[in-house]
Design a protein that fits this description.
The chain is an alpha/beta fold and 237 residues long. The chain is 50% helix and 14% strand.
């Protein structure tokens, strides 16, 4: 173990690939973490359209994955993430699966659960992508999410999503569900009006002035317009 490889400044990933595909490396890394007092990085993933037929299957798969991790790695935190076969997420099915698993962990396992909160690839670092980031933040936080290890695609978005997590903490699931369903519908309506879907995330230079390290004014104006629309749908301001 190197000087930089200490229990207080590192986590080692021991997670399986999707659907509990395990190998000896995972077990050996878990053993290493156990011997050196390192908290393992655990991450459960389930793919809708693969072994899991739908959101309910994926939620069960996520929980089986979490239970497997903590049984051999003994970690006190775990990331949860569900995707579709085409690589997309942040839709009704994947959000339902994540929320169900997060709630189950909170109620029955009492371990801290986290996830990646970000829009799908075409909407990354784009104002419209905040719809997807915001609705995931509200749904997951109201379900008991403890942390987000990715939040948005820039420092500015991370701060705003952090504020939203704080505002959504303790929100009743019924209220959160109503808001998220409205946001999902509005997002799709906006996408349907576009002539062209972006191929990739926006370049960081498109939204940030790299000399001042501040968001560009046109990006901020567009972002706050979207934010105001979301507040009108019930998102905490």
């Amino acid at each position: 173990m190197t000087d930089l490889d200490e229990y207080f400044n590192i986590q080692k990933y021991i997670f399986w690939k999707q659907e509990q595909k395990i190998d000896w490396d995972r077990l050996l890394l878990s053993h290493y973490c156990h011997d050196h007092g390192i908290v393992p990085w655990q991450s459960a993933m389930s793919l809708i359209g693969g072994l899991c037929r739908d959101a309910a299957d994926a939620a069960v798969g996520l929980m089986a994955n979490v239970l497997g991790h903590i049984s051999y790695a003994h970690g006190r935190m775990c990331s949860l993430f569900s995707t579709n076969m085409d690589g997309t997420w942040a839709n009704h099915a994947t959000i339902w699966a994540n929320c169900a698993a997060i709630r189950a962990c909170e109620r029955n396992l009492r371990i801290a659960t986290g996830t990646a909160i970000a829009p799908c690839t075409p909407w990354g670092r784009r104002p419209l992508g905040f719809y997807q980031s915001a609705l995931q933040t509200i749904a997951f936080t109201a379900s008991g999410l403890g942390y987000a290890w990715i939040a948005g695609g820039s420092g500015f978005e991370t701060v705003k999503l952090g504020e939203l997590m704080e505002a959504a903490a303790g929100m009743k699931k019924e209220k959160a569900n109503q808001i998220v369903l409205k946001m999902l519908k509005k997002f799709q309506e906006k996408v349907n009006t576009l002539d062209e879907i972006p191929d990739d995330v926006a370049d960081i230079q498109d939204i940030y002035d790299l000399e001042t390290v501040r968001p560009r004014e046109d990006y901020l104006d567009a972002f706050y317009r979207i934010r105001d629309e979301l507040v009108g749908l019930g998102m905490p301001g």
